[in-house]
Batch of 2 targets.
Target 1
Amino acid sequence: MDVMPWPKGQGFKGADTWWDYVHNQDEEHRLENLLGLALLDPEICTSLINGRDLELMEAFGLSPETQHWLCSIQADDLAQFAQAIIAQRKTHTTSA
């Protein structure tokens, strides 16, 4: 199954199934899918952590607000990036 974001996908069968699944999830789960893909692919990880690749975030259907927030995270690696996301979620759920 091709899980790489368009237009960089490899064209393998199953891409439409994967992206239909991703886009039918809520934003939290789409973000989790993006982080999972970053764990599997060093290029995606670099694009997310160092490049703050908006095209990548848009491919996962993340809102402009979430994209802006993700771009504001200061992290040197995926573990720090994920920890910042978890910390934000904890803050958000305890203040709600």
Target 2
Amino acid sequence: MENVKEKEFKLREDLNEIVESIKLKTRKTSFGTLSECIVKLYNGEEIIFSDRNKLYDLFRSFIITGQNGFVKSKKLVDEFKVDEEGNVTGVYTCVKYELANGEVYRLFPKDYSSNTMIKNYYDFYVKNYKKEGKK
């Protein structure tokens, strides 16, 4: 049965089109080493996503143990927020990593304002580039 609320919320199925690259990086801070996911957009702007799941360390463990091809896909996506009863309550934006072993990890923007920035850049892209077929 289709969830009635899903009709109220729209997913941007083409959101990843505005992405030039997605990379996990570390940087030194006064508190130690911080890993984060940098999403570089079509216009050179960068949005930072928190690596609370320690994906950088996980991927490093794959590399150290001689494994490769462990990332199946990585994308900037919209997904539905669902409550305990299975009702759609909203939409969130995340970087979704799917691994070859079937595991899925989601990274969320570091700052709440990043969601609005992504919306602004996406809307600008759709208005100015997508209709004309150029990037």
